[in-house]
Amino acid sequence: MSRRAFLRSGTLWLAAGALASSDTAGAQESPEPVLRVGLITDLHHAEKEAANNRFYREARTKLRESIDHFNRTGVDSIVELGDIIDAAEDLQDEIGYLQAIEAEFARARAERHYVLGNHCVWLLTKEQFREHTAAKESYYSFDRGGFHFVVLDACFRQDGVPYGERNFEWTDTDIPPAERDWLRSDLDRTTLPVIVFAHQRIDLENRYAIKSSPEVRAILERSGSVRAVFQGHSHQNDYREIGGIHYCTLAAMVEGSGPDNSAYSVLSIHLDGTLQIDGFRRQSSYAWASPRSRG
Questions:
Q1: Rg from Cα positions in the chain
Q2: How far apart, in whole angstroms, are the C-alpha atoms of residue 214 and residue 102?
Q3: DSSP secondary structure string, the chain?
Q4: What is the pLDDT of residues 114-145, one digit of tens each?
Q5: Distance CA 291, CA 26 (A)
Q6: Total-model pTM
Q7: How far apart are CA 165 and CA 94, in angstroms?
Q8: Domain range list for the chain
């Protein structure tokens, strides 16, 4: 059986959840990853005083540490899972926040991917966000290393209006029908195992979750190809398995002062179908393996 066919057929299961959170030394990696993806979320960069345990001005320093680690260890891609900036009172200030943190992010040697978060488009429109970053379309997919990756955009009101220019409440978040139709078609077209990235949560039905989360989960489960979903938004480590899919919520980089209170991780994808998340600072580590890999 080819490596691609094996990865497609393997069903992942939780082999080890929530290993002890690590410092910059990280967790031990299994050998021979075929792909390594750096993951960061909820930086909330802004030039304003700390509030509610959010240290906005420290985002650039925390991001620098993660980018240095990703550059040194040679990840293939980096995915930023939303809220790279915090809201400003003035559009030009918000653009300034974005330009400053983008300059730090641009130090990365690997390709960069951006998930839109609600704070990314408070005063900015989605088009303005893309103008000042290397972001692509707000939702799209791409293939790397025998896997299919999907970037989702839940920055829409439930009536389908896209976020921007202060036109929304953060609890009114949805993936509208047109995007759900696109997701269904995209998953039908791929023959590869799938990993999904989102900002707002798909595994819950509360104020942190998108309004259509049951419908989106049904689409993911119906495909039979989705292995894991990585999310941010609620700022805390969390994990659950629903319908055979791993939903991993990552810790926010903005919470707490000093380097020990940062959070970032590296997702390693292995030949045997194992997915391993090595967490750094406050980010938890996980390992999900295929039954075949256990012998």
A1: 18
A2: 34
A3: --HHHHHHHPPPEEEEEEEPP--TT-PPPPS-EEEEEEEE----B-SS--BTTB-GGGHHHHHHHHHHHHHHHT-SEEEE-S--B---SSHHHHHHHHHHHHHHHTT-SSEEEE---GGGGSSS-HHHHHHTSS---SSEEEEETTEEEEE---BB-TTSPBP-TT---TT--B--HHHHHHHHHHHHH--S-EEEE-SSBSS--STTB-TTHHHHHHHHHHHS-EEEEEE-SS-S-EEEEETTEEEEEPPPSSBSSSGGG-EEEEEEEETTS-EEEEEEET--EEEEE-GGGG-
A4: 999 999 999 999 999 999 999 989 999 999 99
A5: 25
A6: 0.89
A7: 11
A8: 3-289
* Contacts of residue 198, Cβ cutoff 8 Å, sequence gap at least 6: 81, 115, 152, 154, 210, 229, 230, 231
CA-to-CA dists, residue 193 to 40, 53, 196, 290, angstroms: 22, 38, 10, 12
233/198 Cα distance (integer angstroms): 9
**Distance separating alpha carbons of residues 278 and 287, to the nearest angstrom:** 8
Q: Which fold has domain 3-289?
A: Purple Acid Phosphatase; chain A, domain 2 (3.60.21)
Q: Encode pLDDT of 264-285 as tens digits.
A: 999 999 988 899 999 999 999 9
Locus of tokens 């992010």: 105
| Among 167-171, 197-201, 280-284, 291-295, the least confident range | 291-295
